[in-house]
Amino acid sequence: MKNPVPQAASLLLEKLMLLVHVRPLLAGSGGEAAPAPGYYDTSCFKRGDLLEVPRTLFIHFGIYLGENRVAHLMPDILPAFTADRRHIQQVVTNKRLILGVMARTASVRVDTVEDFAYGGSILVNHMDRLFEGRVLGSEEAARRAEKLVGATAYSLLWNNCEHFVTHCRYGAPVSLQTDRFCETVKMIIRDQRSVLASVLVGLASIVCLGLAPSTTLPTIFIPFFLWMAG
Questions:
Q1: Where does the secretion signal sit in this chain (predicted)?
Q2: 94 to each of 21, 82, 146, 166, how far by Cα in Å?
Q3: How far apart, in whole angstroms, are the C-alpha atoms of residue 204 and residue 207?
Q4: Is 225 exposed, middle or buried (0-12, 13-18, 19+ CB in 10 A)?
Q5: Whether the Cβ atoms of residue 153 and residue 104 lie closer than 8 Å to each other
Q6: Are 128 and 165 in contact (CB under 8 A)?
Q7: 118: left (phi over 0), alpha (psi -120 to 50) or beta
Q8: Which of 116, 131, 166, 220 is the most buried (most CB within 10 A)?
Q9: How far, in Å, CA of 21 to CA of 148, rounded?
Q10: Are 149 and 108 in contact, with CB atoms under 8 Å apart?
Q11: Catalytic residue at 208?
Q12: Greatest CA span in the chain, whole angstroms?
């Protein structure tokens, strides 16, 4: 039987990157892939539409504001150091993204459809079928998104781009990706019963949940394991 620890650790690391909006890299070049300008036909988009861009390990979300503009939440370290919109509005690099996740800082920003999608395919209002009867008016969704533009806190699990768009379009912040992540973690703990995997999950929870640095490890892990066992 294969050792479950490396498998669990690998899965945890993969799932932790699930909600991180790291841009794809060009194979073997070390540079960042660039989307083709004018690739998207925005004539089919309406103000207030919820846009999804499926990636390999995650889905990125945004609210279409009209005139080739999309509001979306992205982790970014820069708002923690400056309020200069000219600098913040520059295209977010991988380094800014990762540091933003670590520092739990982000911004709701407005970008072109091309910069938002970054070469990926776009689904329009794909989540409406899951929130039947709860869809707000398109103008209300767009206005909610516009009001939230600016710096905000970030959490991989509790305040990501999916929470932002569901709040805007459906009136309640929800993340199906977070739900799937939590179920996967529970499955690892219950099925594998690995001490090391449990420790890794506990450490991951510290990062994701943003627990205070002064909190002791026993205080963190005991309720965490009780929750997992439930």
A1: 1-27
A2: 8, 18, 25, 25
A3: 5
A4: middle
A5: yes
A6: no
A7: left
A8: 116
A9: 19
A10: yes
A11: no
A12: 56
Nearest by Cα to 21 from 62, 69, 60: 60
10-14, 133-137, 207-211, range with the lowest pLDDT: 10-14
**What is the rounded CA–CA span in Å between residue 162 and residue 177?**
8
Tokens of 46: 């309406």
Query: What are the phi and psi torsion angles at 81 (to 5°)?
Result: -115, -20
Give the integer Cα–Cα distance in Å for 189 and 166.
30
Mean pLDDT of 208-228: 43
> CB within 8 A of 26, min separation 6: which ones?
32, 33
Considering the candidates 44, 161, 168, 208, report the single residue annotated as catalytic: 161
**pLDDT band at 80; cut points 50, 70, 90:** confident
Q: What is the pLDDT, as a whole number, of residue 224?
A: 44
For the chain, the domains span 49-174, 191-229
Q: For residue 218, report the phi and psi dihedrals to the nearest 5 degrees.
A: -60, -40
CA distances from 90 to 32, 112, 215 (A): 15, 12, 36
Query: Above 70 in pLDDT, residue 38?
Result: no
- The pTM is what? 0.69
Cα–Cα dist 109/24, whole Å: 20
CATH of domain 49-174: 3.90.1720.10
Let me know the angle formed at the C-alpha of 118 by 13 and 64, rounded to the nearest 5 degrees.
105
Structure tokens of 54? 């499926």
